[in-house]
Amino acid sequence: MTTATDHAALLERAGELLRALAAPVRIAIVLQLRESRRCVHELVDALDVPQPLVSQHLRILKAAGVVAGERSGREVMYRLVDEHLAEIIVAAISHAGEEHS
């Protein structure tokens, strides 16, 4: 049985997740990682965003449990932790593109 406290904690975690996703660069990163694992320089090239900014956004996404990094030689390869996270982004983009009356 779920208590009101458990429910409130769940809603808080969901809010934290949505806040972590609520930046255009982070949305773009999630979309890139939806396609395949990427290292920082691949994200920099794909998004045309400076490396320090990409790294900062990756730290936020990693802290929120959205992405994970795995060392591969000298580079860290980033991947989505869960495909559901990309579905949230795709749904938000679809909704944003719809005309609403």
From TrEMBL:
Pfam families: HTH_5. One of its GO terms (molecular function) is DNA binding. The keyword Iron does not apply. PROSITE patterns: HTH_ARSR_2 (PS50987). InterPro entries: ArsR-like_HTH, HTH_ArsR_DNA-bd_dom, Metal_resp_trans_reg, WH-like_DNA-bd_sf, WH_DNA-bd_sf. Residues 6-100 form the HTH arsR-type domain. SMART domains: HTH_ARSR. Keywords: DNA-binding, Transcription, Transcription regulation. It comes from the Bacteria. Gene3D superfamilies: Winged helix-like DNA-binding domain superfamily/Winged helix DNA-binding domain. PANTHER family: ARSENICAL RESISTANCE OPERON REPRESSOR ARSR-RELATED (PTHR43132:SF2). This is HTH arsR-type domain-containing protein. It comes from Mycolicibacterium aichiense.
